[in-house]
Amino acid sequence: MKQADNIIGQSGTAPFFRVANPNDVGLTPAPLRHGDAVRTWVSALAGFQKEALVLSTRTGAMWRLVSDEGAYLNGHDAAPCPLSFLTVGMISSYMNEIMALAARDGVKLRHLRLIQNNYYTMKGSMMKRTMTGGALPVELEVEIDCDLPDAALSEMLMNAVHASPLNGLMRGVLPSLFTLSRNGIQIPTGEASALDHAVVGGPKGDAPLAAATDLTLIERLGPSPQKAVAKGTAGAATSLTDEQDRTLNPAAICTLREDGIKEIEQHLYSPHGSIFRYLSEEAAPHGQGRAPDAVSYISAGIAFCFMTQFGRMASMEKLDLSHYAVVQDTHFSLGGASGGTGLAGSADPVETHVQLQTSESDDVARDMLDVSERTCFLHAFCRTDLKTKLKVTRK
Predict the structure, then answer these.
(1) Most buried of 176, 280, 344, 371, CB within 10 angstroms?
(2) Can you give 27-40 as a three-state secondary structure string?
(3) With 80 as the cut, is the pLDDT of residue 237 above it?
(4) Please, are residues 319 and 368 in contact by the beta-carbon 8 Å criterion?
């Protein structure tokens, strides 16, 4: 596959910013069902590069984000890969809930650092239609110094994990729901579960403008360290082979800065990629909203990952797919601790409106959706009952 243009690197537009004119962009917010809702529009740029607008119904904040892939998909590595966004949002959410529980219970934390590893699998053949993405349990290490005894500390940390809004997508089985449009006309879905809802379109207003800030929201720091991962991959175009049996491992390290913003260093160990540094902050009353919040990163990651599968299939099968985009709605509860509900985090199935521009037939468009849903790691994450394995390290 020929390497596509580096639109992100060549563009004069800042890659990541808070949108200063969200009401003028023409992306309507998702309905608010459970306390938090995010509408994410993602559009293909070139190759595996994508741009997103992520709109929070609860806060009104809109963020512009971009994603790319590395050499394993013949990408330019000009922005983080899709899986890194969910990993970052997840660890940010866990930090939110730990801090909220500690504050509620009067526990003084003298040191707190989170280290998280996510694992995904890809097995089977694209040509034989047996290729399937999978998600494995999450590993979370909490480095901490506080006066709680071991049993009480473990209980507080597990309560924080369960309180995360992402718990609603991790625990239980939540198959995603879809509408499908080909060249602007809605058509029935195939194997993918149909969403009984009118098609939601993308933004139809003004171009998003960047709000003034002195913060660098996301930046590349260099290559990730080498790490041995069973069935890990590192070579160029390894994610484009027909027969696959590989494991992916994005990871993140989260600390809290003195200004209250979470700083998250994301590593991609398999396929081997880059380190990106992210900033994350909740809106009031728990922060100033100076950087994207946890559920905005989570939502962007799911949509970015799903979009990659369309591009990957079209590339591998040499299909005509001149343009493609999605509008995705995610519905979460507030955090059990940070939102004061006292309950485990919950969520609805992810709802995605798929828009394809193609000369291929309706049946091929349906096949593209079905294959992309099956091979998307983060839709697999939603339809798989997963647990977080907790390790506590006293510092």
Answers:
(1) 280
(2) CCCCCCCCEEEEEE
(3) no
(4) yes
